[in-house]
Amino acid sequence: MKILSLFFAGLLGITAFAASAGDFDALTKTGAVYEAEAKVKYQSYEVFTADNGEPQVGIYFAPKEPLKNFRVLGLTFKDADDNGQVYFDEKEIWRAAELSSAKPLLVRLTFIGSIPNYGISFEDTAGKVRKFTISESGMDGSLVLAPFK
User: Fold this and answer.
1) Higher confidence at residue 104 or residue 15?
2) How far apart are CA 67 and CA 81, in angstroms?
3) pTM of the full predicted structure?
4) What number of H helices and E strands is found in the chain?
5) Is 11 left (phi over 0), alpha (psi -120 to 50) or beta?
6) CB-based contact 49:110 (threshold 8 Å)
7) Which percentage of the chain shows pLDDT scores above 90?
8) Neighbouring-strand partners of residue 61
9) CA dihedral 99, 134, 21, 36 (to 10 degrees)
């Protein structure tokens, strides 16, 4: 029964992520873009390698406005409810008191399957912590930042 429950929870999670094109505001606010698609060639940036798996992708986070308490999170699927809300156990794997376009972050990671295994969080201008999974669209391969709780 537990396996069946995990299967359906996984389907809910996949459906929730596939149905969403992600959060455009989050992509804009964080300046998130694949390394290969970056139109700006940054002279100075920090590199964080989340894992050494293959195929590895690079994602720049270069926000136009500084983001406070920016964190990269390792995510493990925990549960999903009937409304499509997906829950993760999170582990902070990288942190900056502030992230800005003056010194962006390049995160190297591997997408494993269709359930996100990495995410980010930061404080918005009102001081609210916002959290997003990092994944790749199964439709067109575009970068997806989807909100989670």
Assistant:
1) 104
2) 31
3) 0.83
4) 2, 9
5) alpha
6) no
7) 71
8) 105
9) 70
